[in-house]
Amino acid sequence: MSKANNGANLGFESKLWEMADKLRGHMDASEYKHVVLGLIFLKYISDAFQHKYDELAATAETEYTDPEDRDEYLADNIFWVPPEARWEKIQAQAPQPTIGKVIDEAMTAIERENPSLKGVLPKDYSRPTLDKTRLGELVKLVGDIDLKARESGVRDPLGRVYEYFLGRFAAAEGKGGGEFYTPQCVVQLLVQMIEPYKGRVYDPCCGSGGMFVQSEKFVEEHGGRLGDIAVYGQESNPTTWKLARMNLAIRGIDADLGPHQADSFHNDLHKDLKADYILANPPFNMSDWGGERLKEDVRWKYGVPPANNANYAWIQHFIHHLGPNGIAGFVMANGSMSTSTTAELAIRKGIIEDDLVDCIIALPGQLFYTTQIPVCLWFLARNKKADPKRGYRDRSGETLFIDARRMGQLVDRVHRELTAEDIDTIAGVYHAWRSEGGEYEDKPGWWQSATLEDIKGHGYVLTPGRYVGAEEQEDDGVPFEEKMAELTAQLYEQFAKSDALEATIKKNLEVLGYGE
Amino acid sequence: MKAVESSSRGASESEFREFKSGGARFMPFDTLMARITPCLENGKIARYIPSEGVDGPAFGSTEFIVIRGREGITDNDYAYYLTKWEEFRQFAISQMTGSSGRQRVPADSLAKFLAPVPESLSEQRAIAHILGTLDDKIELNRKMNETLEAMAQALFKSWFIDFDPVVVNALRAGNPVPEKFAQRAAHYRDNPERLSLPADTLRQFPDRFQDSELGPIPEGWNLSTIGAEFDLTMGQSPPGTTYNENGNGMPFFQGRRDFGFRYPSLRVYCTSPTRIANEDDTLVSVRAPVGDINMAYETCCIGRGVAAVRHKSGSRSYTYYAMQFLRERFKRFEAEGTVFGSINKKQFQSLSSMKVTPDIITIFENLAYPIDENIRTNEDEMQTLAKLRDTLLPKLISGELRVPDAEKLLEDAL
Fold first, then answer.
1. What share of chain A is helix, strand, coil (3-state, %, to 5)?
2. Minimum distance, in Å, between the CA of residue A344 and any CA atom of chain B
3. Which ipTM was obtained for this model?
4. Whole-number average pLDDT of chain A
5. Of A57, B10, B99, B403, most Cβ neighbours within 10 A?
6. Where are the alpha helices (DSSP H) in B340-357?
7. Which stretches make up the DNA methylase adenine-specific domain (chain A) (predicted)?
8. Checking phi first, is residue B154 left (phi over 0); if not, alpha (psi -120 to 50) or beta?
9. Chain A positions with Cβ closer than 8 Å to B
């Protein structure tokens, strides 16, 4: 994966961000987010429409195509944009004080014409608290994205900008905010590890839908067809759910996020789903998940998770939805690997003894905007037997531990990112370990393949540090004798200096009248 | 700012960056004084000592005030000691302005400070020379201690990690040397005398390797655990009401916060100690982060962040260096615990260790302990020198104590 895909390194996006952020004024980032992202979305569907419109208009004479025939658009999975909602109309009115009302009407018209977007678009641009001069300038800025992108030679600029802005908003909201966003490098690592080429992909806490955007990207990059993946998601926060709908629509991904937002624990919208791949980043150590109202559930196969921490509720929810050959990769707080509270230890023990744990990765700290705590990745495989079709070897009773805590680099004072090379290295090790005939080798201090017995020996603790051992000490190459000779010479020199200094100090004290 | 310490004299570069604008500009050997809360109150004053190959101007944070002697009027070294004078610092603190949290002292208000500067440049130089030699000696002791510790470490590594004496013995006896030590074996094959150990010391080492779970080890030395080879005291924190910073009771170390190069610095005391570390016990931090090593200077009380370790034979130096070489393994416990890393007694005790023949430990101890004693003496001397400097400084700077015959003193010194 090229470095440019890492999002933050594109230049034109960050310039755009700076400009957009200037227009934010005194508004909270969490509120402004919906204003900006809504506009980008509007621009996007209007552009897609216009593109098709021009095509149809060009062939109107020869093939009698009608650019105002909405069926032409539906056939191509393009949203029909009624005349009053088209971007040029909106931009033409940007300097007017009524711009808020114009946008609201455009959003309403699009929702009316496209039932699949019902209730998704923001429609409160005319509220008095939104400064109309700034809004007008913002409209102009979004209108120029294409121009800026063409200068930088970027394809799919609006999708990129949407995702980049999501990330920047997550950063701007900082602690307590940004929960809708998983850092791109973490998503890339998860995706590259489990390779969701085709089948049903599921994320029961999908946030703004980043996991899917990344996996579709992956499929495209590897020559598969977008239609090979069926995407299922669920999100409990209503505004985040809307962000996700837009995020997926902007990428042309047809996903089933359920008819509305809902809590995966208490209102599972995909009850019968058995997924081939699960990708997820559930909230860390969520304490008020309503566990006391859910003591008995078909999902608690390994035991009832504690009411004060949802980690093991999530893990069991994933396992429940995993198909017979399914693989799940998800982010967890580090405590999940070693917690020894009775309920959680019993669940972990059950999962380990059922041989579901395929791989565990300890990640460096400071990867997330929302929290500084170090986190890890879990990979569970329903079936670890040989799978010649996918080229997997029989890994029954084996688990791969990777300690990646020393990887990544700081992008600013408090945030770290895994580099493309780090991601390739980690995923490469896992693939070599998992494949039939793969050239895998343990590397002390970094990765180690362990057996069920080893894990039992460590009291069912899954912390990679326990298994990978110490890194082989880089010898400084200087044989003992040479080192000693060097140190001795140094010491004698210091002794001599010390003697001279001592004499001088004594003399100075004498001069001051404090002789021995 | 981080590079400026209150206790030592030199500040070195923390990074090299392209200079844009703003910030303080200073020359080698200028005095840098922090102007902001709480660095000023803590006495963060240092001189810029450039590293080798760097001699141009340097740039720093806007939170420094740069002080330099004026050509022909004040000596640059003297200027440094003037800023170290308590009265100067108190004056600076009194001039601080700004809102309560982040107060700063404006550079121009410092200019109003009236100081009794000796008119003769040579008297200024003599004062700076007298104080400077004390600081030089402190710095030299610090370097000497680093050299001494490196020597003991090299010896420990050669004997107990690389098994050099066993390799030499195996070569002499014609026994096979494991692949892992092939490079060392090649080094000694033609010239076994390269390892200049007395014959009777060398004889104490085995001449054969055996296999173990952790690779080849000398025959007769067995894999063991920390728990079996060392006595381990895990700290326990006494109630907070028994802590004080007035020197009442026993020195108390809650965690690694006060750890230094070898000995932790004294700050907190406790009147009802619960867990005790003895003089020369090795102290290991067991929480956040795990694995920092220090030595107990005297009997002290240890809190829950610290463990005291001593080899069952009572060996002080052997314990200290053995723990240092375990550091990598301690670091593995960093990822455990949700917020910060920690290691509990059971985990600590079950770390693997080697059971070495008692005679060899004794020989090592006889070689390493004098080195460690020298380090301790140097540390003691540094304390005395610092006290002496701090006692002389106000007297010399205020003019209460004059340097007779300053010219001659300087001449002799050169």
1. 45, 10, 40
2. 14
3. 0.76
4. 85
5. B403
6. 345-349
7. 155-476
8. alpha
9. 285, 333-335, 337-339, 362, 373-374, 376, 403, 405, 445, 461, 463-466, 468, 470-471, 473, 479-481, 483-484, 487-488, 490-491, 494-495, 497-498, 501-502, 504-505, 507-508, 511-512
Alpha-carbon A476 to chain mean position? 40
- Which residues, 6+ apart, have CB-to-CB distance to B332 below 8 Å? A465, A466, A468, A470
Give tens-digit pLDDT for B19-58: 444 566 788 888 888 888 777 777 778 887 777 666 677 7
Highest mean pLDDT: which range of A116-120, B274-278, B348-352: B274-278
pLDDT at residue B74, rounded to an integer: 85
Are the CB atoms for A376 and A361 separated by under 8 Å? yes
Distance CA A210, CA A214 (A): 6
Taking the model in full, what pTM does it have?
0.67
**d(Cα A29, Cα A369) in Å, to the nearest integer?**
14
- The one-character DSSP state at A387 is B
**Residue A266 in tokens:** 């208490």
**Which tokens in the block code for residue B401?**
């104590």
- Could you tell me if A394 and A386 are in contact, meaning their C-beta atoms sit under 8 angstroms apart? yes
CA–CA separation, B390 and B378 (whole Å): 18
**CA distance linking residue B360 with residue B210, whole number of Å:** 18
Which alpha helices (H) appear in A81-236, and where do they start and end? 87-92, 99-113, 132-143, 145-152, 157-173, 184-194, 210-221
- Residues of B in Cβ contact (< 8 Å) with A479: 184, 187, 194
